[in-house]
Amino acid sequence: MSVERESTRVLPSIPASPGLIASVLRLLAFIDDLPKGATGVLKFGDSGLILLESRKICWAVARSMRLRLTDILRNQSTPPLPREAVEEIYRRCKVDGRPIGEALVMSGLVSEAGLRVALFKHNGEAIAHLAGSGLSPEAFVSHSRTGYDPKFSFSPCEVLAMLGSLDDPARALAAQIELGNTLVPDSFGAAFVRSNTVSGALVIAVDRACDLPVSDLVEVCNWTAGLFDVAHTFDPEAALARAVWGGRLALVTWRAKDVAYVGLCSSRAAAARLVSRLESTAKSSGVIAAAARYGGPA
Amino acid sequence: MMRALSQPLGSGPEYNALDLVCAPASMKTGALLDQNLAERVRERLEGLAATLPDLFGTLDPTCLERIAERLGGDPDDATFGEILLLSDRSLHVIQPLASRPGVALVAECPATSSIGMVLSAIRARVLSMEGG
């Protein structure tokens, strides 16, 4: 029996560099710019590759990374998975041509959630290494082979947030929980902070429905940060805002301690529900007091 | 019209209930446009008005267009139509005026006011102003 943890017990060996997030943003923006259904291989010569299916990241590997997926999988269980059992499955997969991760799930050694966490760390680390190396993709070779389980693929936004979370994993986990508890149907969102590691907002958590181009996500977060900055010049207690555009779309933003949140809503009703839910969240008195009064038409 | 717009919204009981003040402001410069504004109204609104260039001039419209597209909204309408800002103390509203490009109505009232009533009052005022 295995017990996988969402914690960072096995931290990816991501190269520390002040410019890392900026480099990662450039690389992920390249993926965002590919055609919507892009499926294929993004090649970095001998240095690595990223496999994409419908522009989602299924697998990434960099020659310079230290941890293998099997190491991550073994060590995120308590007790660690027996090496022999994992290697036996690995050998069989090599013969059958099956993905190792999915075979481990089939064997019962690893849960789906555990595999997703491990893949997330592995792919995030690979992308950090590729971006940190300063290499640009040499080519994107499209192919028609599909078959990666969508449960085990990741949007560029998710990868960006995963790397941003390394600054303070506990804070990022709390932000992820806040998003999960607060967002409503027809909305998706992200959490961000100010950090010395980037010039603008550092995205630290996104919900799985968040599939914006990373540059747009960061731009919206920067705008939101600016909104609170300027608002605090005349009202230091401002903690909740809503902006509408596009007829029925809305952006709801709120702050709790040093983390800011953005929820993007596809209807005014969703925005009203989101603000209403903030009312019942007993975390920030500033937010709650403001949201509690929000009973009128949106 | 501008003078009327800068008065506290409503009169009598409505005004007493909401304690809402509003005035037109330039989204480009952040200046309040009513020269005859009472000092106490000016004091309540000029901080909010001063934020307009930052709020409306800094987000790339194509970014909002792309997000609108992802959300299934109208990508051709890529400017914020209304911004609410809430705190323990106050409710602030910014409402760009369709009939006067580059101008927004800025409004403020105490946090004890009902947001629904405040928005209704502001929208009614904007409507009558633009219709008139």
List the helices and strands and how they pair.
The complex is a heterodimer of chains A (about 300) and B (about 130).
Chain A: H1 20-32, E1 40-43, E2 48-53, E3 56-62, H2 69-75, H3 83-96, H4 100-107, H5 112-132, E4 139-142, H6 156-165, H7 169-182, E5 187-194, E6 201-206, H8 214-234, E7 240-245, E8 249-256, E9 259-265, H9 268-279, H10 285-292
Helix pairs in contact in A: 1-5, 1-6, 3-4, 5-6, 9-10
Chain B: H1 2-6, H2 13-18, E1 21-26, H3 39-50, H4 52-56, H5 61-71, E2 82-86, E3 90-96, E4 103-110, H6 115-131
Antiparallel strand pairs in B: 1-4, 2-3, 3-4
CATH architecture of the largest domain in chain A: 2-Layer Sandwich
Q: Rg of chain B, please?
A: 15 Å
> In percent, how much strand structure appears in the residues of chain A?
15-25%
* Sequence of strands across the biggest β-sheet of chain B: 1-4-3-2
Helix content of chain B: 40-55%
By CATH, the architecture of chain B is named 2-Layer Sandwich
Number of discrete helical segments of chain A: 10
By DSSP (H or I, 4+ residues per run), the number of helices of chain B equals 6
Name of the top-level CATH class of chain B = Alpha Beta
Spans of at least 5 consecutive residues with low confidence of chain B? 1-6, 10-16
Helix content of chain A: 40-55%
Query: What is the CATH superfamily of chain B?
Result: Dynein light chain 2a, cytoplasmic
Parts with pLDDT < 50 across at least 5 consecutive residues of chain A: 1-10, 282-298
Derived structural class of chain A: alpha+beta
Rg calc of chain A: 20 Å
Q: Describe the global form of chain B.
A: globular
Strands of the biggest beta sheet of chain A: in what spatial order? 6-5-9-8-7
Straight-line N-to-C gap of chain B:
9 Å
CATH class (first level) name of the largest domain in chain A: Alpha Beta
Number of domains of chain A: 2
